[in-house]
Amino acid sequence: MHSDRGCHCRWPGWLTLMDRYGLTRSTGAKGCSPDNVAAEGFFGRMKTESVYPGRWEERTRDEVFVLIDDCIRWHDHERIKRSLGWMSPVQYRQSQGIAA
Question: Quick one: 47 and 74 in the same domain?
Fold first, then answer.
């Protein structure tokens, strides 16, 4: 679960939920807004394109994890971006010699 170091992410109730469901917290580097911009952009797209239409509240935890994993794989391997020359992130990295 990515956060921008907001106070809500230090709330004891939130920390309890993270522990209960075995989720790991992550944050961008302190004072490095580009880290947060990239993460917020990705998670915003994931929520609007995958999670919200999927009625996640009616799913089990394992079903939600599969949905999230599928979304990440699709985003990295299939979703093309104009800024990457109409390639997926993985295709772009491979074309630059920075991914296998």
Answer: yes
